[in-house]
Amino acid sequence: MNKQTTGSPSRSRLGTWFDHHIYSLVASFGRMLGKPWATALTIGVMAVAIALPLGLWASLANVERFTGSVQQSRQIGLFLKTSVAVDRARALADELRGRADVAAVELRTPEQGLAELRERGGLGEAIDALTSEDGTGNPLPSLLLVTPKGDEALLADSLRNIPEIDVLQHDAGWRNRLDGWLRFGVRLAFVLAALLGLGALLVVGNTVRLDIQARREEIGVLQLLGASDGFIRRPFLYLGACYGLVAGALALALLTAADVALRAPLAELAGSYGSGFALQGFDPIQSLAIVFGAGLLGWLGAGLVTGHYLRQTRPTTT
Which of the ends of the chain has fewer CB neighbours closer than 10 A, N or C? Predict the structure, then answer.
């Protein structure tokens, strides 16, 4: 009996603390619903501020994926002389695979190249005119696609001395420029995220400030009754978090709508290049991180504004 008596006050305090959190959360949603126009404006501005950098980041990720993997973009094309037989091309591929600076070698025979041109190039009639019925007269050479393991420039220079090679195709300039643009784009996305995130924080902070001003008499009474700053601040923190959570969900909805609108024309464009590329959005874990990150942003904005107000209005003791 004594144990229950001594344990009940702590459980009562914990229950009161928990009940106030639940009440603050529910009351925050109630205040949002009580002023729908102002709430819609605040959430809309926050959602756009969140969606813009996320959309840019997602676009850059898809562009990087569209350009292919790093290994594929580093491949060196070795066009052998037309006089080199396929057996010699296979032997040369095996020799290159044994090098320490080569990760992989893919051989494409003239027959494979001709079949690929028939399928993708739309040059069937022209190819039939160049080749005879038994397949002779194929003007294409054997092709070796070499994937470097180390420095591709050094490997390309060393491969130029192979006598069977007619043309060595290695243009890393475009890839270096593309990588530079992608790095710039990622940095731009972070800068925009910082600036627009600051704007979203100021928006939710201003909205919470207006709510604080409307309830300043209630806050003054609570301070006179000895309520702690945490007790007074809690409903406004939940209000800011609610704004952020709903804005994060709306930002994801806007990005999903943009993805749906762009998917069909992009698939048609990629199909004209013989590619099955499709836009890739955010996975469930990333989506949850975005929503909760937006909620944290709203929580932070509300906390800064509420803390500043309480420091200015805290009663002075004499």
Answer: C
What residue segments make up the domains of the chain, in order of their start? Answer: 20-68+176-313, 75-171
74 close to 134: Cβ distance less than 8 angstroms: no
- Where is pLDDT greater, at 173 or 70? 173
Q: In the structure, what pLDDT confidence band is assigned to residue 18 with cuts at 50, 70 and 90?
A: low
pTM comes to 0.61
Distance separating alpha carbons of residues 58 and 280, to the nearest angstrom: 8
Contacts 24+ apart (CB under 8 A), 167-175: 167/77, 167/78, 167/79, 168/76, 168/77, 168/78, 168/79, 169/76, 169/77, 169/78, 169/79, 170/76, 170/77, 172/74, 175/67, 175/73, 175/74
Whether 131 has a pLDDT exceeding 70, the answer reads no
d(CA 214, CA 206): 13
Reported as a pLDDT band with limits 50, 70 and 90, residue 3 is very low
